[in-house]
Amino acid sequence: MSKPRRILHRGAFTLVEVLMVVAIMGIAAAMVVPAMLQGSTMSLQAAARMIVSDMLYAQNDAIARQANRRVVFDTAHNSYELTDASGTLLDPSEAAGRGSFLVDFSTDSRFSGVTLVSAAFGGQATLEFDPLGTPLVGGAVQISGGGHKYEIDVTDITGRVTICDLSGQ
Questions:
Q1: What would the pLDDT profile of 33-81 be if each residue is shown by its tens digit?
Q2: What does 63-123 look like in DSSP terms, one character per residue?
């Protein structure tokens, strides 16, 4: 008497299943890749974060050293710097991992395509913090790049810093 043969089914995908997975991956890639290629938008966001970070650093340094600190914007040269009350550039060796307190959007590859549009703090292009960390006057900085425009606002008295996307996207 012979034993009945067992038919072994190997686990495999059909052609239809493989084609469906490839189609789904293609659709996903079509949506993700264009967003990843917009480097100028990322550069603009990085520039906005850098400006906010430097504003907060100047504010905290003013409190820690009990001396006025400034963030001086130069729209003509697309740059800004952190200085003391006399206009001397702050020493980067006092900030761990910091290269310089002069940021030039035109030459720094991290910020390619970013333009410093305007800076207005009571009619000046300088944000100054007193020894208590209070801005002498509030105001705003506008930067643009990649079809987007951001405004970085600093409120009077509190020195609260906020970012607003002006491009409406």
A1: 666 555 567 888 999 999 999 999 999 999 999 999 999 999 999 999 9
A2: HHHTS-EEEEEEGGGTEEEEEETTSPBPPGGGSTT---SEEETTT-GGGTT-EEEEEEBTT
Provide the 10 A C-beta neighbour count for residue 136. Answer: 16
**Would you say residue 153 lies in a domain?**
yes
Q: How far apart are CA 143 and CA 139, in angstroms?
A: 14
State the total domains in the chain: 1
Write down the pTM of the prediction: 0.75
Residues of the domain holding 94: 40-165
Is residue 133 included in any domain, yes or no?
yes
Helix (H, G, I), strand (E, B) or coil at 15: helix
